[in-house]
Specification:
- The protein has 224 residues and is an alpha/beta fold.
- Helix content is 33%, strand content 20%.
- The strands form 2 sheets. It has a 6-stranded mixed β-sheet. It has a two-stranded antiparallel sheet with strand order 7-8.
Length: 224
């Protein structure tokens, strides 16, 4: 039976950024290969137990960290210019390309947690894609949380979170006991709900650039 020690580290190139990935090879008959797109602020190591379990079921799993986060952090957090579109489109596409190179044959599955499952419509997918699974990939507002949790949510979105991000140039989540450190661009876009994916360029926008532009607008529009 496999364990974490038998997984291997891989590097994933995404627009000049090197993402830290880890591949968990399948054990026994191969059912599929899966790339796991993580949630905002959740490091890839969080998914190791699941990836190990899935590998034992014959499912090869690729996990990775988005640019400027977790094991993929290559610079001071305040210097990062990463956006949700970078994470949800470019980095996810790069990870899917890496998995196709690792596993050139057989079905491909995609598993998205939160943000990881919100951006599938914004990019092209391989014809071998057989299954898409999303976990907690919905739209939410402060009022959707239970009352007991709302003080922490309000502090994160309206009090300590925005104040600390404005002062430091990134979200110092660990210092504030509010989760992981995040690039400022990720935090500011994450705190806004989705409103519309319609373009306002008169229909001139086309291709992958358009999809990324629409995604940026969805993250940057609307009330916090």
């Amino acid at each position: 039976m496999t364990d974490i020690a038998e997984s291997r580290e891989i590097s994933i190139a995404s627009e000049g950024n090197m993402l830290a990935g880890r591949f968990f090879p399948p054990v026994g008959p191969v059912a599929a290969h899966l790339v796991l797109h993580g949630a905002t602020g959740v490091p890839a190591r969080y998914y190791r137990a699941f990836a190990t379990w899935a590998a034992r079921q014959g499912i090869g799993v690729l996990t990775y960290d988005y640019r400027d986060f977790g094991a993929s952090r290559r610079r001071p957090m305040r210097e990062s210019r990463a956006t949700m579109a970078d994470w949800g489109v470019a980095d996810q596409m790069a990870a899917e390309t890496a998995l196709r190179q690792i596993a050139p044959h057989g079905p491909i599955w995609l598993l998205g947690h939160s943000l990881g499952g919100l951006t599938f419509p914004f990019r092209r997918h391989d014809e071998r894609l057989e299954r898409v699974i999303t976990v907690g990939s919905g739209f939410a507002h402060v009022s959707d949380h239970p009352w007991s949790y709302r003080p922490a949510v309000i502090a994160f979105w309206y009090l300590l979170g925005p104040l600390a991000t404005a002062l430091t140039g990134y979200l110092p989540g660990r210092r504030l006991l509010l989760g992981a450190d995040l690039p400022a661009g990720i935090y500011w876009q994450w705190r806004r709900p989705f409103r519309s994916a319609h373009d306002d360029d008169g229909g001139r926008c086309r291709g992958s650039a358009c999809r990324r532009l629409a995604l940026c607008r969805r993250f940057s529009a609307g009330k916090p």
